[in-house]
Amino acid sequence: MTNITERDVIDLCGLVGKILLENGAETARVENTVEYIGQAAQFPVSCHATMTAVFVDSKTNPNTHFVKVRVGDFNLQKVDDINTLSRQFTAHEIDYAQLKTGIAAIDRKVIDFNWLEKIIGAGLVSVAPMLLFKATWTDLAWALFVGILGYLGTQLATHKITTPYVSVALGGFIISLCATLLQLSGWATSADNIIISALMPLVPGVALTNSLRELIGKHTISGLVRAADAIMVAGSIGAGVIVGSVLAQILMGGAS
């Protein structure tokens, strides 16, 4: 600990806060983790986190460390990795050098699944709700493939389109169009069941959960921002579903 400066600790805490916010952690977790690390390093700091920035300052001088955060795709694996390291450090299981090295490695690490794993995961998530609907085996099979198509459409659009919410709207459109066409053509029994199930990979579940946690923890601004973002995503999905259903009915009506 003798070679550690207060500035080093504040800089590292700022990086920790940035990683946590960027990967889906709620602001209360960010603030608590940063302050625990500072206390364990014997340089107590205070932290204030918003949706787009982290402020870390020392309790012994007026200097403030500001980190701008760009929130996009999140990865809860990085949040768990940071939490694990911070707990080990506060429990004195690792020293400051190991903590700093581990955090830098997590920041550089790209945690992702290959396309086959993503497709299988999206298909399984799409099938699960069908069990609640007591759907036919045919509809269950269609939900698998429609969910995969919607997920792939969303992911491909995300890499091509920078406008927010368009990619999830496209995913909802693809799912609704396919499900409605399947029902109108007589190949499926219930388009509604297929749509509801196939939309599950697109639903902003983490955003909704975090918004509620923020509001319960009295982080009102962050909670409302997260809730507004989740509502916008849900609204975009709904708009895509409506357009897809109407277009399918027009196509089948014209065909008949």
Automatic annotation (TrEMBL):
Pfam families attached to this UniProt entry: ThrE (PF06738)
Any one GO biological process: succinate transport
UniProt keyword terms in alphabetical order: Cell membrane, Membrane, Transmembrane, Transmembrane helix
Superkingdom in the source lineage: Bacteria
Domain Threonine/serine exporter-like N-terminal per the UniProt entry, residue ranges: 11-246
Membrane topology: Multi-pass membrane protein
Regions crossing the membrane: 140-158, 165-188, 194-212, 224-252
A single cellular component GO annotation: plasma membrane
GO molecular function: transmembrane transporter activity
Family: Belongs to the ThrE exporter (TC 2.A.79) family.
This protein's name: Threonine/serine exporter-like N-terminal domain-containing protein
Organism of origin: Loigolactobacillus bifermentans DSM 20003
